[in-house]
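Lab meeting notes turned into a lecture example. A postdoc, R.K., suggested we walk through two folding results consecutively so the class can see how the record format repeats. The first protein's sequence and structure tokens come next.
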Amino acid sequence: MGTTNSIRFGITLQGVEPPGAFQRQIRDVEAAGFSHLWITDSSLHARYVYSYLTLAALNSRRLLLGTGVTHPFTRHPAINVNAIATLDEISEGRAMLGVGTGDRPTAELGFSPARVQTVREMIDVARRLMAGETLDYEASTFRLANAHLHYKHRDRVPIYIACSGPRMLALAGEVADGVIVQCGVFPGVVDYARQRLAEGAAKAGRSLDDVEIWIMACGAISDDRADGLKRSKTMAAWFAQTAPQCCELAGVEPALVRRIREVYSGGEFNQAQAAAALVPDEMAALFTLGGTPADARERLARLIQRGVTAINFMPTSNARGKSIELFSREVMGPLAGA
């Protein structure tokens, strides 16, 4: 994964700010030194991902811009290809396609998370359409008939998979340009992700050097430790509900995981307040950056010591602006210059 003097920082944002405030936020994010920007595809819980990526393209010059992440169901995979190719043209080659299985916001649209095979097919179609192929394609959940992208900007937009589970990590190692590992911020995450990625890479005759590895680091950064931890607990509860294997890896008591899952509700993680109330501070510290800038620096420094060179920050709670300010000034700056 490289050395500490090559640390890169990305940021994931939900389209929750009004358009004017969002555009100012993008300019601030680029000025702060982030290299990658991902916008969530949050169904009805935030503004439309491709509209906000277009605003981001028009309000930045350097940021790489991607879906963080989209999935095969709420629009046809070929329409996602058209959307990301259009963004790539608007941004003059700065687009990235981030994909995953879909999360709780898809449930209100009547979908369950996609199968690994469907994500594989989505990536295959994206690569082939962007390369100029005409496709007749019968996938497990969609089809194409004499389909062709009727314009061309470049042959290959990089594709990233966001994942927590072993099968999706293996798929990322096999077929993706990069991976966004959402398993927490404790050091064991690094070994877990590398092992699963390596298994997939070996299947395709690749190595870990062929996969750009990003660690997802969510949470609220605050001058007050208790406040930051409290605001991060909905995200920590998400792991118990959606990625319990990560809780097992972290050594969280199975009985606690069960209690959190029993009360977890809501279409996306910020709504899981009852579940968050059960999360102890120690668990929040395993899965998020919640707390002070010093807390976040300490947790990320442990990952960097394990060879992590790409960290993707996602601010949570309704104090996102303050979290971004503190992270960029007091976490990202010191760690990048370490």
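The second example is placed directly after the first for contrast:
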Amino acid sequence: MLNGVINVYKERGYTSHDVVARLRGIFGQRKIGHTGTLDPDAEGVLPVCLGNATRLSELLTDRSKAYRAVLLLGRTTDTQDAGGRMLKERPVHVSEQTVAEVIKSFIGNYDQIPPMYSALKVNGKKLVDLARRGIEVERKPRAVEIYDICIEAVSLPRVTMTVQCSKGTYIRTLCHDIGEKLRCGGCMEQLTRIRSGGFCIETAHQLGELEKSVQAGEETRYLIPTDACLSDYPGLTVSKEADKLLKNGNPIEATACSALEEDRALGEFARKGAFFDSQQEDPVIAGSQRSGCYRLYSCDGGFAGLYRMRKGGKLYPEKMFLSGGK
């Protein structure tokens, strides 16, 4: 079984579930999962975890995202994107300066009401299933954060912009909210995810490319080792005496650990920028939320898992990756 993460370029027309199903067939293994849903009409970065890296899914989903979106002003739809049923069309009598000012006003924290056409559940039922039956229910606003918005081009009624945001942000809802604040309405016309955590679009691979690599006998060509995806955590090696404790998932004295002589997770993949774009630092990681956690390796160099430092100078297991090792 393969263990690691593949930076997949999801093409338009595929659901995230479709991508996982295709990869199960390509690699011939069941244990595969994605790290954050992309709508069928959206494209771009979709990190997919294989084997023991599926335990990374929650950690990777928590990280920030970056999108390139085209906002179409003057049109409101039921899905908040251009593919939905048009609800209202209004003239766009606003200046480019006003548009820019309103867009920039969304930078920071704001409460976003999730769209009805989403996979979120209310009382055990998916909102999208209710929406397709013509049922609308009340949704509680969710706190999201827009780290930055860069306006790349304005040709009214269209605006092309790059958005860096927290997990759980709906870009089509952002487009809708911008349109409402401008009093002309708006929807999302196009969406590309250009970054998810440390995975960037420049090094994402289409399904056809991955299939060819497997057919050529190069199954691991684009596979990123599990520990390399956690390179923002410091790495430690345990002593021979503590090795058994590590492999059994027991707490370990910090004094039984030493810093890696060479950080393996910052090896071939990270050094060459094969998946991490150092120019677009993840604001979540930069915000020091990673403090206190360490990657722990056995004395023979095998990656064991993430440990967190607790009071008293002991490291306790946070998430283990022992099946399959490094």
